[in-house]
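Lay summary

Proteins are chains of building blocks that fold into shapes. Our project writes down both the chain and a compact code for its shape. Here are two examples, one after the other.
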Amino acid sequence: MKARSKAQKRAGRKRRIGIKRQPNGQPARDNSEQKETARSVAVEARMRLYSMPKHLAETELAGYAIGRMALAGSFGRNYQPSLDAVYDYVCATAEYMRIKCPQHPLPQAMNYLAGRGSSLAPEPSLRAVDRIEARYEHLLKKLALAPAMDRIWFHEAAFHDRLNGERGEKAVIVCASLLMAA
């Protein structure tokens, strides 16, 4: 092998000293800046599209239509019971659809798997299937008292994040109050 000359040793990009490197020798990429910029873009878009102050646009509730309704005061000052009732319905429907109709699209609007005890095990037992069916049927009986169009608009808001104006908001409020009723 030939010894390299001084000119050959200086050729190419110089290696930066004092930076963290991956095991293969490349500089480590820090994704925290990218995550922060993506979050700030989302917050700015929520502020612009929904006319929200920054402290509300940063919350998780601002990420979906029913949450924005709660932040706007549509459910009153204490909106948590209404949100819990809607969330319970979304979780029950997602579990039911997973068992009965595996090809059915799951809800997109709410983060229904965020940790409130979802029972989406790979193969549910027959007892679990019966429990899920009973829970779903119980919630459907509660919603049966609402007009048909209200149920459709509620489904659109809860599952597809589409709120059809003021009438859609009223439908969500009606259905949420029916779900909260004993």
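And here is the second example, written the same way.
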Amino acid sequence: MKLRNLIVPAAIAAGSTVSAQDVDNTNKYLGVSAEAGWMLNSDKDKTFGLGGTVSFATPDFIFNSTHNYVTFGAKVFSNPYEGGKFISNVSNGVNDGLNYLALLAGYRFTENNFEEGWYVEPRIGFTQAGPYSGFIVAPKGGFMTNKWDFSLFADAAFGGEESNIGKKNFTSAGLSVGYFFG
């Protein structure tokens, strides 16, 4: 099953889940982040990759914690190789980069509150990288100060067919800097 076939149902399910809950509307956040890292298990030249995430965080409606958050996000990451260039390797028809989209749901455990302090955020979801699709585990952890988010991430995807790096899974890791509005 392709990821694009899951996007609309996942968005509807996520939206209806959040809207059906009795949560405090004053503590919701919309975040954007820039990410840089490397593909760790590629047989291709392990070049630098760039990407970003747009995410939404709402107070915990699962366990009713006073300082933890449920998150939903969409991540894109481009890892060119063999002479590939950022952005142009997405649609040039040449096998010169692994570009993936991931739809993620997570749970952010915070030290104090959302805007300040250390946190750990396990995330899971679905990913699409060209003809490759699979399940992704994408934990991140870091520090927030004045709504600025500084973190480390690791993405591990598992699928049934080989991606264009020649494996049925891929792993990337790196650094993320973002800001949350709300």
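What can we say about the second shape? The two ends are 35 Å apart (CA to CA).
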